[in-house]
Amino acid sequence: MGDILGSLREIVGERWVSDRPEELWYYSRDPGVLEPHRPDYVVAPDSVEQVQKIVQLAVREKVPVVPMGNAMALTGLVIPLKGGIVVDMKRMNRILEVNERARYAVVEGGTSQGALKAYLQDHYPHLRHSLPDAPAATTIAANVALHGQGRLTQQYGFNSEMVCGLEVVLPTGEVCRIGSPSLGPYWFSRSHTLPDLSGLFLGWLGTTGIITKVGIRLYPNKKLRDLEIFVTDIPELVPEAIYRLTHLELLEDITAWFQPKPLMFKDNYHVTIYFTGDTEEELEFKRKMVWGCLQEFIDSKDGGFMGVDPLKPQLLEMPQRSVAEFADVPRGGGFEYSGPITLVEHFPKYAEKVVELARKYDLLYSGMARVISGGHAMMFAISFAFNRADRDMMERVKKAMDEATEFALQMGSIPWKPNFMEQRMILEKMDPVTRELIHRIRRLMDPHGIMNPGNWEVQ
Ligand SMILES: Cc1cc2nc3c(=O)[nH]c(=O)nc-3n(C[C@H](O)[C@H](O)[C@H](O)COP(=O)(O)OP(=O)(O)OC[C@H]3O[C@@H](n4cnc5c(N)ncnc54)[C@H](O)[C@@H]3O)c2cc1C
Predict the structure, then answer these.
(1) What pTM was computed for the model?
(2) Phi, psi of 444, rounded to the nearest 5 degrees
């Protein structure tokens, strides 16, 4: 092995590379429950050329490379399972272009959600992107690399479906552009009439290349937002309510949730319905439509709308901080969630399963489902909070998560942002021809097996 540290210093400068134990400690872990594993080096590039040189070095020296955004995926996707070089992308955080009329932005591969949100607020307040509820420092490229979902997913699909062009450093060290930017200066399309090569990178969890630029669609940012919460104690009513609400084709976001604490929420299922408008009239019209479409359940006394005024400031926050508060993160708590993508009609079965697992493993739970693309599917988050100082509790969360994934696979769902063990479970269950195709694509794109190894690996 050559002098990798020295070569990395030459590429990025002394300040931006480290093999010091205290820094490697930090880059060995994420906030979830998986065991840490140490990288050998961590490096923070500032340009696509530097990323290219790092990957070329890794190819020469045959060491793994793990692209990292903010390490908040919670399922160990940036834990360097086989050591090597963690490439921290956060310095590449420039917003390169906003095309106001075509409604897209082009950002570098380490740009955070918060940075784009703030930039749009300052310069294009009538535009927005689909912000996840993840911490503001999490990155846009990582979010599309794991098929993230956000505030506009109910209307427009997964955040990865909003990608309108990519620039990627391939595992060979070459740079390629995907979609309209491969033909000219515009980033309006990932494919349209071209073969859609974005599928070689979206959902691959950094195993097929390092995204250095992302084109991401923007959408109208209406002046006003509001919400209503429909409550019922009948879980079977939730899919029916969602079916009626999505029929309206009017709503920004729909989430269904249930949790045992505080006690006022216990044993009830809540559907939070977000809507937007440019005028009070538009907002009131939408509110009326929402109430109207669920009126039958109010008349039958199976459900009703709850008073939301005290909750509004928290629920209208973007991103919402209540998830982190559930885990008491400020005092050293943590939480882990498995989020199978499944049919909305499966909501009652998942709801039952969460409570069953929480009882079995003596854990505090929270269940939440976000509707995707007008009701074609939902992401059902099975979340458990834990105390980081309690190893036994973390073990119980791990077991509960494994069972949740087994259940999701039995139900025919797709586990979202699976950890490396869950990926194995998925690959085992998968149609063998599809599995072999994944294997061949990985081998073809990454002949030296250096990109985020241990993930999406067919044994
Ligand atoms: C409180 C909380 C709420 C959350 N809510 C949401 C939510 O509403 N919606 C949602 O989607 N997620 C949510 N998450 C999960 C997660 O934080 C997000 O998906 C987030 O986008 C991950 O970004 P990151 O920069 O931390 O990714 P990381 O954990 O750093 O990386 C995730 C994956 O992307 C790969 N990757 C990173 N950068 C690149 C790159 N430039 N090129 C190629 N691959 C790369 C990594 O190798 C890894 O496989 C939440 C998490 C928390 C803690």
Answers:
(1) 0.96
(2) -65, -45
